[in-house]
Give the backbone structure.
Amino acid sequence: MFEEKLKEFEPIFYPKSIAVVGASTNEMKTGSRWVKALISAGFPGPIYPIGSSEGVISGLKIFPNLRGAPGEVDYVIVSIPRQSVLELLDDCAAKKVKAVHFFTAGFSETGKPEGQELEEQMVKKARQGGIRIIGPNCLGIYCSERKIPCGPLPKVGASGSVGFISQSGGIAEKLTEIGIARHINYSKGVSFGNGIDLDASDFLQYLAADPKTIVIGAYLEGARRGHHLFDTVREVAEIKPLVIWKGGRTEVGAQAAMSHTGSLASSAAVWSAMLKQAGAIEVHSLEELTDTLLIFQQLGCWKGNNVAIIGGLANGGGGISVSASDACMESGLKLPPLSTKTREKLSDLLGEVGSILRNPIDVSQARRHGSDNLFKAIESVVEDSFIDLVLIQEDMDILLPHFSREGVERINDFLVDLRRRQNKPVVVVLPPGSAEPERLDMEQRLLRASMPVFTTMERAAKAIVTINKYFDCHPER
Amino acid sequence: MFEEKLKEFEPIFYPKSIAVVGASTNEMKTGSRWVKALISAGFPGPIYPIGSSEGVISGLKIFPNLRGAPGEVDYVIVSIPRQSVLELLDDCAAKKVKAVHFFTAGFSETGKPEGQELEEQMVKKARQGGIRIIGPNCLGIYCSERKIPCGPLPKVGASGSVGFISQSGGIAEKLTEIGIARHINYSKGVSFGNGIDLDASDFLQYLAADPKTIVIGAYLEGARRGHHLFDTVREVAEIKPLVIWKGGRTEVGAQAAMSHTGSLASSAAVWSAMLKQAGAIEVHSLEELTDTLLIFQQLGCWKGNNVAIIGGLANGGGGISVSASDACMESGLKLPPLSTKTREKLSDLLGEVGSILRNPIDVSQARRHGSDNLFKAIESVVEDSFIDLVLIQEDMDILLPHFSREGVERINDFLVDLRRRQNKPVVVVLPPGSAEPERLDMEQRLLRASMPVFTTMERAAKAIVTINKYFDCHPER
């Protein structure tokens, strides 16, 4: 389904060439920054800066108008005053441009009739010229494979399997940054702002068809074509996991959405009911959205409700066991008893006093017998046939004084190696504290090894429940 | 009320001298580490290492038994096998020790009758000898003023106004670490484990009477004297804000609590009803507990429901405004319109296109007019008489590319200065992303200036609602 979108959107996500309208020799101007960002990111095709000031930016000649660009132009990024956008669309039509992305703002989101009218004229001109519009009032395309950065910043993360759409440029930018930080690797993304031509439905259909995308995240504020969006969400959710964060759920939030992207928001209850019926996964914050995308990316097609919790790698496993159990149980996970075989192994490895041979498992006694015993204890829990997934709570504040930096590295190496040898998912909870540089370092290593890492047991448990529910309802996938 | 506790507990929280039983020349032994931790932390009184091996640890002579310590001993830290604890209590009585803290574990939490019996004998001996017991199976006292570290780690944070009690040693340790990281400064804390003599009620009464403590946090797993604890919670909550996190709310969590501190947990619903009726503030996670303690510490006696949100200090304020509004409104805060006067000022400072002169306020347009305009815009919102508290969302990922490191420092300086000049609370949301070192640096500076900092708008809003509700119900404070 939606295979036709792949061909249609090829010049949008994989343009052969890009023109940036609104560039100048002043490097602080947004258009200039976009040119520099495309160069830094390594966009492989020709880049044509267009602007009224003669000269050169980052070694590229600035052309006075789009028609004068020496080669074909697939995709145009526009950062000029709104007064000039209609004229620019004429130039785009003459140049046979495929798609125009307007960063320019000041349209329907101002609430003034002129803004609305201007948008209508833009769409009319685009239709006549065979051009598709992205925006206005947005950051446009992000495609790390084609080295197109998210906005006028040179940051491009690794290519991956997570697609996103965002009505908001700020949220798109933040998704990209969190992606880089947490190794959520995007296939492609788009911020489409007011969405006067191409909108959420179009991009969702494209990502549904895109073979490189296995899970889709969306931040939406409202829809001009509500019924069409609903139908699309239903169709897309039938193909791939679709995670939607609806902004503007409250009265004030909805007012802000109106003046942000000109979105008329419906009530939160209507949206929730709609998303549920359509089979999409609803989330309520940036953290929940990124947590969910991370777990889908790292675990792939996986389900299971029976988890084991391991705490106290060095010490202090008791309170962690209690609170982690609460967090998992309250989220709806199950903590079954370990098999007799596993308990016998653990009893040999840990002894009994003070350690808890139940699930959750406090392995702090292992330290007395050396880290090999600790590793064997963890591995025996991972191997337990009653257990679908193992949650390990590590705490740098507690690990570091007991193991030294090298000892912690060894635990890390062991976990990374375990992940390679075992098919069973291991999810790590690494709470913040007073050893942040060491914690961040450890987090990076585990994430690079495709292990999901969360800062709290609550967030980890919620993400696990979400992916489990999803694949429970879609056993065929 | 409870003033008698101050005198009684003086030798516990402010001991003149400490003996550590279980020290040796082997520096890796827990007792030895405790001796070193007390020295590193700077405990100002005599420290007497007691152990069977002759020799010296960190320059201190090891005495073969407690009776041989050359001076008076107020407080004893015990890390020896449980087989020797009764004999040790005889030594303590002979030495006229005031309080003994048992790190030693392996008692009622094992679930075995021997453990239970041993505890009963310990209490009997302590009563006869006029000694109070802390523990067993815990980390004992934390008092930064008296330079007593939390457990055998040399970390001692700054002295402050937050008291805590924790049934779990691991949670006590983590509370201390988070305190250091987030500038939650404790007056004193205690981990009391199995609580066979002094228990939650005793320490709550002490903290209620302690003039240095203005807010109390508690992590509890269960109570041996349930009715007494309930009465105490009610009495203490009448004196000071009392924030309680109950661990073992779920079936598996309760089982873990049983084998952790030997606690018989009641159902979560019973606890919630009890805490509510007693006027305590119930929280459900370590994050919520520390967030709540932080806001009480930073805002002091404060209430107000009308908040303003400022976003987009550099850019990307639109999506933030929408999602921040949702987070605040869903938590129960109000976002009233700004006064006409403030809106006129903002219109002069920001212009209209693209910026949102409502509440939430997207100030990203200020950047075009220089950072002075940004600062004036923020200050005019803080001065608005309709607004009780201002929430500022800063994002290092977005700030850094626009302002450079120096520009961000200037924003920081402005906020710290604003806090000094204005009485109105300013709460900062600093979400994590891909510029963690810079973010942590900024967070530290703001926290040092007594500005509460949170990683998400949801957490900030929840904490604000909690303190507001509290002082709304206690207008007399």
User: Anything to note?
Assistant: The CA atoms of residues 164 and 189 of chain B lie 5 Å apart.
